[in-house]
């Protein structure tokens, strides 16, 4: 869809790739920032309004019921970018989770450690109007409209905390390996497994719902086109979640996912994260299949330097 309704705005805005407020914070080494709500331009709000208007109908058709209750519980605005303070006032009493504004990339261990503390690192910028359909990096529509409504569900929220604890376990069990190269090799394999598991569940997960297969993954719930494709397309293979498959399955980064995994419930997902942690402790994750996602240098370093308190 074109951005023809969007007019130029004199304000600088908080646009992905063009947000001096965020870029300056990053250059000062500040990870946690404020939302600086007054900096959003009319164009930024209009992008949110259009994204919301386009996806609303598909949410009703394809989102899991917990997500839809979450959207209502948060009173997610449809016509302007939400204030994180208003979201948190409604979210925190439900599950203890909070959206915490960040300046961009959060190194892997720090990201998972935030989840462990029920804090969700949240991007404050929004995509530019000429990139409505796809943006490789997260923006506030992905983080707040795609992820945060799920955080109102107690069992899903507990599952995110378990993921956070798994990162801690990964750092802990590899910290005692004396041979540095072997430590890095094992940690890289565990991180790849964990990142795939997170990718095929929290980001792109499907579940059995009252009306058939529905979506709970935020990558689907923030993409109008991929949401419909994930549920309706004959080209997509949908299989019951199998841990041994998921941790070895190469992820599609720039295309629609062609393989998706279905959980029965969030109790089911929670128990699979438990199993993942046990496999890690049993040493079963040191040789997962190579391939995407890559383990970035900064992510690896964050695990190697993790403070295990
Ligand atoms: Fe995400």
Q: What does the model show?
A:
With 309 residues, the protein is an alpha/beta fold. It contains 13 helices and 6 strands. The protein has helices at residues 20-27, 42-62, 65-74, 84-95, 108-116, 140-147, 154-175, 180-203, 218-221, 224-232, 243-246, 266-281, 297-304, and strands spanning 98-102, 119-123, 206-209, 212-215, 237-240, 259-263. The strands form 2 sheets. It has a 4-stranded mixed sheet with strand order 4-3-6-5. Fe (ii) ion (FE2) is lined by residues 138, 142, 147, 203, 218.
Short summary of the structure?
The protein has 309 residues and is an alpha/beta fold.
- Average pLDDT, rounded to a whole number, is 94
Shape: globular
One letter per element, helices H and strands E, the order comes to HHHHEHEHHHEEHHEHEHH
Strand fraction equals 5-15%
Span between termini: 49 Å
Oligomer: single chain
Low-confidence stretches: 1-9
Helix content: 40-55%
In DSSP terms (H or I, runs of 4 or more residues), the helix count works out at: 13
List the strand order in the largest sheet.
4-3-6-5
**Biggest sheet character:** 4 strands, mixed
Bound molecules: fe (ii) ion
Instruction: Report the radius of gyration as a whole number of Å.
Output: 19 Å
Number of strands: 6
Structural class: alpha/beta
């Amino acid at each position: 869809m074109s951005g023809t309704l969007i007019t130029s705005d004199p304000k600088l805005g908080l646009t992905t790739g063009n947000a001096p407020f965020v870029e300056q914070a990053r250059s000062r080494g500040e990870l946690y920032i404020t939302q600086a709500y007054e900096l959003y331009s009319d164009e930024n709000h209009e992008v949110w309004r259009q994204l919301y208007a386009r996806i609303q109908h598909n949410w009703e058709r394809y989102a899991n019921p917990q997500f839809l209750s979450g959207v209502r519980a948060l009173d997610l605005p449809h016509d302007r970018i939400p204030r994180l303070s208003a979201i948190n006032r409604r979210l925190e009493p439900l599950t203890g989770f909070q959206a915490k504004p960040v300046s961009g990339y959060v190194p892997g261990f720090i990201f998972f450690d935030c989840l462990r503390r029920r804090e969700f690192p949240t991007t404050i910028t929004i995509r530019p109007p000429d990139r409505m359909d796809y943006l490789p990096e997260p923006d506030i529509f992905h983080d707040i409209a795609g992820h945060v409504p799920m955080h109102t569900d107690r069992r899903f929220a507990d599952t995110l905390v378990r993921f956070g604890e798994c990162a801690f376990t990964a750092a802990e069990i590899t910290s005692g390996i004396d041979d540095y190269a072997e430590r890095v090799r094992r940690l890289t394999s565990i991180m790849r497994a964990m990142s795939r598991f997170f990718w095929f569940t929290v980001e792109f997960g499907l579940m059995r719902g009252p009306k058939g297969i529905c979506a709970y993954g935020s990558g689907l719930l923030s993409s109008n086109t991929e949401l419909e494709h994930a549920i309706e397309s004959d080209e997509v293979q949908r299989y019951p979640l199998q841990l041994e498959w998921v941790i070895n399955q190469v992820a599609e980064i720039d295309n629609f996912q062609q393989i998706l995994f279905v959980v029965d419930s969030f109790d089911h997902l929670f128990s699979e994260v438990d199993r993942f942690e046990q496999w890690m402790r049993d040493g079963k994750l040191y040789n997962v299949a190579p391939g995407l996602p890559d383990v970035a240098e900064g992510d690896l370093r964050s695990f190697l330097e993790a403070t295990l308190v």
